[in-house]
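Notebook p. 47: complex prediction with flavin-adenine dinucleotide.
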Amino acid sequence: MTENTDVVVIGGGYAGVMAANRLTQREDVTVTLINPRPTFVARLRLHQLVGGSHDAVVDYGEVLAEGIRLVVDTVTRIDAAERSVTLAKGGMVGYDYLVYAVGSGSADRCVPGAAEFAYPIATLEAAQQLRSVVDAAPATAAMTVVGAGPTGIETVAELAELGRRVTLVCGGVLGPYLHPRARRVASKRLATLGVTVLDGPDAKVTAVTRDAVQLGDGRTLPSRVTIWTAGFGVPDLAARSGLSTDAVGRLLTDETLTAVDDVRIIAAGDSAAPSDLPFRMSAYAAGCLGAHAADTVLDRIAGKRPAPIKLSFPAMCISLGRRAGIYQLAHLDDTAMRLFLGGRPGAKLKELSCTYSVKHLANEARKPGSHTWLKNDKRQQLLRAKRGQALATPERSA
Ligand SMILES: Cc1cc2nc3c(=O)[nH]c(=O)nc-3n(C[C@H](O)[C@H](O)[C@H](O)COP(=O)(O)OP(=O)(O)OC[C@H]3O[C@@H](n4cnc5c(N)ncnc54)[C@H](O)[C@@H]3O)c2cc1C
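Predicted complex, structure tokens below:
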């Protein structure tokens, strides 16, 4: 009889659920998933929660394989030497392997007044609070969205479709990832929805008060509700537990997603930094990394050498309200192509990607080991270029 292996997965998001499901391929593996909430959060739809067109939660029964033990709690510390995690409600859970998939949240709002007066949107609780604030604000209240990455654009469009008076303060360029052609389409759509877009180097928020935002060029804009979408941060659990992280706090791993400090800890999703060259934070990458993390664990249990991660992005999609969107195709090095789909086709593809990000999890629950994705060797080139740069830097500065 073979010995049982206990695998604990911390974080029940796209990466953690995918990893947990895939691990059920082996009957001699016991999988425990630890997550603070009893429901799965479809983070891709949090801006819809704010706009009222979706509740952004899915029952774990729909996405989690049978036999996985769900513990509703928060891990406060990982003890790598003892191979155990400490729970906020008390007690510890031991493991043979640990999958670290704690995801991401809002970045620290360092601008004066932002922590007190600006609302984040990156977690379920934050989005729920923001929705109540938006609902309670008078119909004509001025609202400001800070940050023009995908989350900022999607949030401002959702609010504009509700008839809200909204300004988007880009802090630079609108949709930095987008190809200029796609950016023009996004800009036009936002104008049609009535959004005031402030871009360029001076369009930076330097202070937030209860009813206004101040910009770098000295302007003050009235703002009854200010929403902060600029940047993402990650939980500090790895750093707090004495594990090596990148500058942001993601767990540092090798290309098999194994922590550089400990072969028993494998990372996936937004909170993983393979070779200090993390993938774009996304549900797509999280699902693929979650599957690969599980493969690495299963390989180690089987005494096989785990493979390096191979992953490329086909696209990035951004909704522009419920009736338009941008489906921006990507090169193998994850930069934007000239090619994109806008308007209703863009919206349909965005909706499909939201639906499939959850469907992939449900499929893996039913058929563990079935999730596949686009793979190529481009990452090896990027890593070589990064190493070359690191070697070249001292010479250049000498
Ligand atoms: C409004 C919005 C829109 C987005 N739209 C898109 C999009 O269109 N396309 C796209 O690809 N990406 C999008 N993203 C980004 C995407 O949601 C993330 O990249 C994705 O959720 C990452 O998955 P993950 O599993 O790594 O982390 P998460 O989905 O964040 O899951 C992590 C889980 O770990 C839990 N956790 C954290 N700390 C602990 C702890 N100490 N103990 C136990 N559990 C813990 C969290 O509560 C959470 O449930 C969007 C994000 C936001 C906020």
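Notes: The pocket of flavin-adenine dinucleotide is lined by residues 10-16, 34-36, 41, 43-44, 46-47, 74-75, 101-104, 121-122, 150-151, 154, 235, 237, 269-271, 281-284, 286, 317 (CB under 6 Å). Residues 78 and 223 are 42 Å apart (CA to CA).
Next step: compare against the earlier run before touching the bench.
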